Amino acid sequence: QVQLVESGGGLVQPGGSLRLSCAASRSIFSIYTMGWYRQTPGKQRELVAAITSGGTTNYADSVKGRFTISRDNAKNTVYLQMNSLKPEDTAVYYCNAEFPPGVVVSWGQGTQVTVSS
User: Fold this and answer.
1) Which residues pair with 105 in a beta bridge?
2) 7 alpha carbon, distance to own chain's centre
3) Cα 5 to Cα 9, 60, 65, 110, distances in angstroms
4) How far is CA 17 from CA 8, 82, 113, in A?
5) What distance in Å separates the CA atoms of residue 71 and residue 52, rounded to the nearest whole number?
6) How far apart are alpha carbons 23 and 79 in whole angstroms?
7) DSSP assignment, residue 84?
8) Count of other CB atoms within 10 angstroms of residue 3
């Protein structure tokens, strides 16, 4: 069982930036497809970005050009760099691990991102 711990959330003004981190407990982190999802009250959790073990990335249309997902396998960590943040980006952000791709093996506890002036 892999444990995931997110960090880096907080309050930021519109147009600002945040970097989220998700640290995994297992050294076989490199085999997982890692994803960032977000959820607001009353809505389903939605995919924000994902990165495969080979480094292929995928983004929701709403964040393309503003968010960047990356991974550091030596640190068992996946990142989400969020730039040009908008109020509609406000949500709880979760990371997950999948292996094989499409089979979720773990979720993190979530980190709150609030974009407000």
Assistant:
1) none
2) 10
3) 12, 22, 26, 8
4) 11, 5, 11
5) 9
6) 9
7) S
8) 13
| Per-residue model confidence as pLDDT tens digits over 22-67 | 999 987 788 899 999 999 999 999 999 999 999 999 999 999 999 9
Q: Element (H or E) spanning 19, and its range? A: strand 18-24
- Residue 36's φ and ψ, nearest 5 degrees, are -115, 130
Token pair for 79: 């990142």
Nearest partner of 91 among 3, 18, 4, judged by Cα:
18
**Closest alpha carbon to 20 in 113, 84, 106:** 113
Tokens of 112: 């709150």
Q: Where are the alpha helices (DSSP H) in 18-104?
A: none
- Cβ atoms of 114 and 10 closer than 8 Å: yes
- Structure confidence at residue 95 (pLDDT): 97
DSSP 8-state symbol, 53: T
